[in-house]
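Worked Example 4.2. Consider the chain below.
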Amino acid sequence: MKDLIILKIGGSVITDKFSPRPKVNYKNLKRIAKEIASAYDKEKMSLIIIHGAGSYGHNIVKKTGIDKGIKSYEQLKAFAETQRLQNELNLIVTKCLIEEGLPAIPCQASSFVVMNLGKIEEMSLSAIRGLIEMKMIPVLYGVPAFDKTKRCSILSGDQIAPYLAKKLNAKKIIHATNVDGVFTRILIKILRLSL
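Applying the procedure from the previous section yields the following structure tokens:
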């Protein structure tokens, strides 16, 4: 897709990742939403936003081990609760984007992805393509997903971004994180090879 940009926002940027309970960093989220709105040109670009889970996912996943697969009924409940929490965060993120005038639409990637041993095996992209063609901004997020072998694995935003970039011929992927650093030429080459 011509001039498609994929923006991956780290969960630790928009939440307090170390909070024992889910907690949004509204100051950062609202600032980021304003910055996206000021940079977005609907006539010249298409945009997909992907965000991480931060405190809306990491704590429960670490506590229950659902990222390693489902082995008990209690883990099924944790899988469902993690989905619910991350849906909640996605609605908060899209609300902030909509308040800035952006046509952001929540998209639960785990509803159209099948994983196998922690990797994307198949992802239906017809709806995402259609939304982009309409000039909507799909907002996806890292989330536990059905895994054919393990029953559950983490479909991370860091896995979604390059997959979509390759399948949709994105112009670029931008990573927004709270960790200082600069991509070197070597890292950029590695990223290109992985696409």
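The mean pLDDT is 91. The first strand starts at residue 4 and ends at 9. Compare this with Example 4.1 before moving on.
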